[in-house]
Design a protein that fits this description.
The complex is a heterodimer of chains A (129) and B (285).
Chain A (H helix, E strand, L loop, with lengths): L17 H6 L1 H9 L3 H9 L1 H5 L6 H8 L3 H6 L4 H10 L4 H6 L6 H9 L16
Chain B lengths: L2 E8 L3 H8 L9 H5 L2 H9 L4 E6 L14 E4 L3 E2 L14 E2 L2 H13 L5 E3 L6 H11 L9 E6 L9 H15 L7 E7 L16 H13 L1 H5 L3 H8 L7 H8 L11 E11 L2 E9 L3
Parallel strand pairs in B: 1-8, 2-7, 2-8, 3-6
Antiparallel strand pairs in B: 1-10, 3-7, 4-5, 9-10
Helix pairs in contact in B: 1-5, 4-6, 6-10
The chains are: A mainly alpha (129), B alpha/beta (285).
Chain lengths: 129, 285
Amino acid sequence: MALDKPYLDVPGTTIFDAEQSRKGYWLNQFCMSLMKAENRVRFKANERAYLDEWAMSEEQKQAVLARDLNRCIALGGNIYFLAKIGATDGKSFQQMAGSMTGMSEEQYRDMMVNGGRSVEGNRYIGEKK
Amino acid sequence: MARITASVYTSHVPAIGAALDLGKAGEPYWQPLFAGYEFSKRWIQEHAPDVIFLVYNDHATAFSLELIPTFAIGTAAQFAVADEGWGARPVPTVIGHPELASHIAQSVIQDDFDLTIVNQMDVDHGLTVPLSLMYGQPQAWPCPVIPFAVNVVQYPVPSGRRCYLLGQAIRKAIESFDAPLKVQIWGTGGMSHQLQGPRAGLINQQFDAMFLDRLIADPAGLAAVPHIEYVREAGSEGIELVMWLIARGAMADIHGGKPPRVAHRFYHVPASNTAVGHLILENQA
């Protein structure tokens, strides 16, 4: 019997479940390696060469090189792991989160200061706003 | 015997730690947030615990995808402050309480909760930001801390109900420890927030207010709320709130005692991407 996944109809949201975790195992483990200062230096010196040391798919490597966090998440990445790439780039968590929304950094920051994104119209895929 | 004197609940947003560490706490953006903890810093001086049992989650710091324990109790003598990628926070090393932690592990496992016992672990902002909010910037943390890490990174995380029952088992364990210790239990994380995808930035003040009301007055009912409601209403990372139910389950009223006194309640939006909630509940004699 298939597992119940009631969270698939939440818009703009990917729940990091066992299936995503399996897909993203090496992508996330690569991110984890950036917890060490010497690895951050090696990665920044030659990103492609560093990525080639990991058993990641070409698609995953391209998504990292492009810093496309939505793509990384679709390919099994988890935001807490992906945050290590942002840390290596000197980005804040707010800059990283904002980069996934299609908003500019300033628009996103203003939205948060004004109370954040409303849940109205954002509960179900296809829901009328 | 040891006893639980109070429970403290707070969000643990990493940007709060960064604001403190970089001397930005007085800036207009941060001032209203830190003002909400002024009472708490005085309160904890007047109600100093001997030990803090601190429920938090690791954010891909000590636990990678190699090992994902649902509940992990730190039984070490000390815990180093982790480098999460920005360099380690300049805060004191966390001193543990191996005797009490081991006692709790033994008691709770015998009560059917399968804890993972951890003797070597770095602790991240999930644990250090709450300490900073309550104690400011001391040279050393004033008391030992038992880290209790809950998996809220890979789905499924433990249910609210499971967390609430676990809190009850932790209470029983602490109150059977043969030393006159005043123990506080802290539940951290939340409140509404989402850090990923096009829906990032979600905040739901109505949900958060309801959560705080029910945590105080209807914890058993709140514990029945399923995961999907947290995800839909409070954002994918809002699910961290289940950890507050561990602390709440350890309070005296769940075991026939009096309802707790609400010593402090605070709520603020935003800290970076997140709604910040904070409660202090005291057990009454």
